[in-house]
Amino acid sequence: MVPTLKETTQRLLRKSxxxxxxxxxxxxxxxxxxxxxxxxxxxxxxxxxxxKLLYRKLQQEHWLEQQANNVDKYAVRKQIAGxxxxxxxxxxxxxMQSGDDFDFERFPPPIILKxxxxxxxxxxxxxxxxxxxxxxxxxxxxxxSCNYADNFTGEAQYRYVSPRVVAEPLLTDADGKVPVDYKFxxxxxxxxxxxxxxxxxxxxxxxxxxxxQWQPIEMQLKxxxxxxxxxxxxxLDTMLALAKDLARDYDYIRVDLxxxxxxxxxxxxxxxxxxxxxxxxxxxxxxxLGEYWPLQQYASDKGGSCNTMSxxxxxxxxxxxxxx
Length: 324
Known about the structure:
Elements: H1 5-16, H2 22-37, H3 49-59, H4 61-65, H5 68-71, H6 76-84, E1 94-96, E2 111-115, E3 122-125, H7 133-145, H8 148-153, E4 165-169, E5 181-187, E6 192-199, E7 206-210, E8 216-217, E9 220-221, H9 236-247, E10 252-260, E11 263-270, E12 280-281, H10 283-292, H11 309-322
Antiparallel strand pairs: 1-4, 2-3, 2-4, 5-6, 5-10, 6-7, 7-8, 9-12, 10-11
Helix pairs in contact: 1-7, 3-10
């Protein structure tokens, strides 16, 4: 059952009052990884894609903090315009720093609201009477009161993003569906690319994968595959070129783009997809994607190793045995 706006707001407010501690972030990260993937990660010498994502989250925390403007859904617009051109930006209706800034005269539906400082904090409003105005304002205020990194997931890239909520026109096709979300997993400055196609994200979500020649990849990540091969988008070459432009400085980054009415539009940049907890099946693809990623060890800013829970257990066991 989908929670109401009031229930979502109450949950966010409860979370906003609890700050995660570094030890808690690390412990939960290992626990969630094990629960999602079914094995203890090796972050001393990560091999799989998922292990490298967890390494990035835990070992490259300061580097991630420096990516704040890249994940800020408002600030990133200026950077994207400078790299690939303003014509690839979704029109911006405005932004809010308080729930009181929202009204239907300023932001007439259909629109989508997006919190700039977190992941998944979106609200689609198709008609004026879909939600009470006071509930929308309360949800906006709850978003603005939260620090996504410190209150929720520990993802450092969101820690210093200025809390804002942007409003954009809702992009829909003739059937009222949102466009396919093409997510380009770019490895080694874009030398290797795997394309993720998310369909009907807010209703009957399916997810398929393709190589740059639009050949299907037999891989699943979190959501079910559609069971059919999607027609190749006529803007694929343009999207690939733009994704490579945006990925040129990174050992790994995910670039999200839309193909809408013949235009390619920018969505967002992502550094730790699914918070490192998206299970990939078959597991061979988790390993293969890890091979595509030449993890830049020099970017580790923790100094020393990042012990897994398994390594910690074995080190304690060894100490106890040495005393026998």
